[in-house]
Amino acid sequence: MKLSDMKEQSFSRRTLTEWQEAAEIALKGKGIRSLHTNTYENIELKPLYTKVDLPGVDRVNAYIPNVEGKLKKASKWFIAQPVKRRSWEELTSAMKDALSRGQNCVSFQVGNLDIIEGFDQFIKEVIELETPVFSIEKKAAFSIQRMMKFPELKEIKGVMGFDPINENREHLFEDWLEVVKEVDQHLPNLKTIIINSAQYHNSGGSATQELAYGLSEGVTYIETLQEKGWTIEKIAGKMHFHFSVGSHFFMEIAKIRAFKKLWQEVLSSYGLSEQAIAQSVSCSAETSQLNKSTLDPYVNMLRGGGEAFSAILAGVDYLLVAPFNEVSGEVNAFSERIARNTQLILGEEAHLDKVVDPGGGSYYVEWLSEEVGKLAWKEFQQVDGDGGILVSLKNGSIHEKINRVRESRIHDLATRKNSMIGTNIYSNLEETFQTSSSNVGERLSLPFERLRERTHKLASKPVAGLIGLGKLKTHKPRADFVKGFLATGGIHANQSKECFSKEDVLQFVEETRYPYYVVCGTEEEYQDKLPMLIESIHHIDSTIVIDVAGKIPDEHEWVRLGLNGSIYNKQNILKKVDELLTIWEEGTDND
Predict the structure, then answer these.
(1) d(Cα 140, Cα 192) in Å, to the nearest integer?
(2) Is the residue at 130 inside a domain?
């Protein structure tokens, strides 16, 4: 077809009903609802959204607070990659280097450094009025009092503080508010009241929980500071929200967009003017700690890239992308550069810094933002009715709610309902195992990492024998599944040639003498040969453990004949591999 003819082509408009009918044909009668999925926020997602799903909201005023009556220009975010080093000299040099390589924000962590020893010199050499500062580390936050000695920094802008509510210690809360009051007189443009809701996400919570508890913290700060005589204008101008963004791309966009709408409504309820509200919604995000793994660590680059993308689309003011090897405690100049360049690519090559609210107008994003907001507000009201965030943190109710979601996440990874590449699926047995030496805790991959650590401690690598019954094409799918299943625990697999008789099987067992075998074949092959094979293999060595590929009942007659069990789809990998590793561990003890 000629190009001129193609330009004349048009497509007839199709209705939702027609699409559903076509989809059901493709689904072979399963029905459209089979494509619906449920999230950890208890939101049911459909496969297709249309104009009728759009909520009745003023999109501009709801999600873009930095406008005055009309859209002016896309707002750029600040690259706030935190720099941390072992000495003030190294920190100063590294911070300068980061700024020369595209970072547009002074972001640092003090760590174990002595504030008195070198902080003043760091300030003199690094901080300039044109470049904002960003640090939400507790020790760095208290160092802000030393910045007050420099009158030339009076107009410095940025975010510098921490969230004492996270510490769950009342005296710390009061102490920090006194610092906030003092700093305001000397550094009035710094936002020092930090609501760090990332902790709720990184503990395993859902998007709606993170948002709801963040809002609850925000209200607590407002109420407390108003009692101390602060005006709502002063309080709102000092507040900054910090989130964590995870792997559910659209959910994270919706979470931050919903925050902007809800926080504006909260501020409005306290009497803040519309003009002041537009200047008082400040937020940042960091890439998730929860979903990062020391297993196949380069995959963390991809996770971080997607998370940064969603945060930018949602419209954060500051963004932190964690180095891919942060969870192993092996951060270096290379991983820091990759993390920083992730943001530079999204801005300068993907041109995301040139678009206002990129997700706006999407039927799905608009609908999801509204749903997340509704559920988060409901949870916020529940916390408020229970006495507020301080009470709920102290009595453990929030921890219990978050822990339930966390356990669901781990269960879904263990049964492969959800995938974590390189960890619970497509594991790389050839990689060098790394033990995490960082303080990044509560990650979802930890149970899998512990299994691999047990394997790593064995005197020799564990190998399972895979017995392939019949032609390769008939047993290969199950054999491949078993290989991948075992690999999540660091167990290697040696597959036999095609076994057509008992003699073929016994020859493979005699040659290998592994402590564990998995029989892979069709149901017909099992019925015909399995009872005989169990007896024959145990005649060679009664201690050999035998499983079959494919689910069988626990009380199956084959189990009574000596079969250990089975490996099958949706099985709990953590429990099964935990049991299997004892085979080699006990063998090592016996040696």
Answers:
(1) 12
(2) yes
Sequence-ordered list of residues with C-beta below 8 angstroms from that of 111, at least 6 positions apart, any chain? 84, 137, 139
Find out whether 290 and 423 touch, Cβ atoms under 8 Å: no
∠ CA 579-584-588, rounded to 5°: 135
Is 506 in a helix, a strand, or coil? helix
> Are both 153 and 218 inside the same structural domain?
yes
Is residue 61 in some structural domain?
no
Q: How far apart are the first and last CA of the chain?
A: 74
pLDDT tens per residue, range 64-118: 544 433 344 455 899 999 999 999 999 999 999 999 999 999 999 999 999 888 9
Q: How many domains does the chain have?
A: 3
Question: What is the Cα–Cα distance from 453 to 342, expressed in whole angstroms?
Answer: 31
CA-CA distances (angstroms) from residue 252 to 87, 255, 285? 36, 5, 10
pLDDT digits (tens, 9 = 90+) for 333-373: 999 999 999 999 999 999 998 888 888 889 999 999 999 99
What range defines the domain where residue 12 resides?
A: 3-53
Is 18 found in the same domain as 139?
A: no
Query: Does 366 fall in a domain?
Result: yes
Count of residues for the chain?
Answer: 591
pLDDT tens per residue, range 270-311:
999 988 888 889 999 999 999 999 999 999 999 999 999 999
